[in-house]
Amino acid sequence: MRFQVYTIGSFATLAIFLWPCFGLDMFEGRVHAADNNKEIARTYHVEGMTCGGCAVGVKLKLKKAKFNVGEVTYEEGAGKAVVKFPSSEYDSETDCKVIKTINDSKYTAYLDRANKFPCK
């Protein structure tokens, strides 16, 4: 019994100290950049996906357009794409470029559900 308690305690301590090393992000969809050496990760909501194959198609389309794609997922009618940018390359038009690339793939992408058509 003492061995199990020691193992669980050691694991918890190790997990707490290693948590920042794995880059786990608790604030999905927000812009994260403190200086020009950092990356900005943006989460785009994608409507129109019906399966995991759709997610693969969106990911390939984004990669073909030279975007650094973190992940594209589909879960029960809701899709999302996480795209990463060096903060030095991110500007006001970047979101529209990504959204237009996804929209060219027969899907509807947006950052905010209240404003589904931010780009003209």
Write the layout of secondary structure elements.
Layout: H1 2-18, E1 39-47, H2 52-64, E2 68-75, E3 78-86, H3 94-103, E4 108-110
Antiparallel strand pairs: 1-3, 1-4, 2-3
Textual characterization of the structure:
The chain is α+β, with helices and mostly antiparallel strands. The protein has a single domain (24-110), classed as Alpha-Beta Plaits (2-Layer Sandwich), CATH 3.30.70. It is 33% helix and 24% strand. The protein is built from three helices and four strands; from the N terminus they run H-E-H-E-E-H-E. The protein has helices spanning 2-18, 52-64, 94-103, and strands spanning 39-47, 68-75, 78-86, 108-110. A four-stranded antiparallel β-sheet has the order 2-3-1-4, covered by helices on one side. A hairpin with a 2-residue loop joins strand 2 (68-75) and strand 3 (78-86). Residues 11-35 have low confidence and may be disordered.
